[in-house]
Amino acid sequence: MQIQILVIEDDEILNSGLCYNLQKRGITPFSAYCVEEAKSLLKKEHFDLILLDVNLPDGNGFDFAEETVSRCNVPFLFLTAHNLEEEIIQGLRAGAEDYIVKPFSIRVLMEKIQAVLRRCSGTKKTEPYVCGSLTIDLENRLVKNKGSLVSLTPTEFEILEVFCRNRDQILTKEVLLEKIWDRKENYVNEHTLSLNVSRLRNKISDGEHEYIKTIYGLGYKWAGEMQ
């Protein structure tokens, strides 16, 4: 699965530079320049790591970490010009994996990011989703219906994963195309998307639950209740 990192930094040049260096290492970056943008992205996407500035236009990074990031179960690093001992301790107590003081070496930061990803990937386990008669194990890419293995194509599984990670959201066809194909620079039209969603819906159907609901004129939404 593609590694995704959220960069929360209001300095546009620094934000752009961090994203560029992450892309060079095969990581998909997402930019946020304030707390509200970060909250919106956290509702829509799954992240493996967050880079978080302390001073943001609409909030404090420490507060954001304690109130929001801590509930997402995502490791994070503070990036800040503040180098007071008390603030470093506050950042670490907020749950940060590290506290990086500006100005910093991009090469060193990238190595620290890789170290955190290696460390966290070995300990973070994603519990399978249980929904109706379905058991969806995203970590091992397995789906079972009433205990029997469901055979899905890679594309069908990716669609299912997007629904599971965004189960409270209405997903337009444009959003699904972007999440599943566009970032890989593969052009796919809406007809192909509709065909794959239809096949997925038929494969996971059990006659009792409607897992993927069509919202006419808008797109699709996960309709099952996760346990």
Give an overview of the whole structure:
This protein is of the alpha/beta class and 227 residues long. The chain folds into 2 domains: 118 residues, Response regulator (Rossmann fold, 3-Layer(aba) Sandwich), CATH 3.40.50; 94 residues, Arc Repressor Mutant, subunit A (Orthogonal Bundle), CATH 1.10.10. Strand 8 and strand 9 form a beta hairpin. The strands form 4 sheets. It has a 5-stranded parallel beta sheet, sandwiched between helices. The protein has a 4-stranded antiparallel beta sheet with strand order 8-9-10-11, with no helix packed on it. It is elongated. Helix content is 40%, strand content 22%. The chain has 8 helices and 14 strands. Helix 6 packs across helix 8.
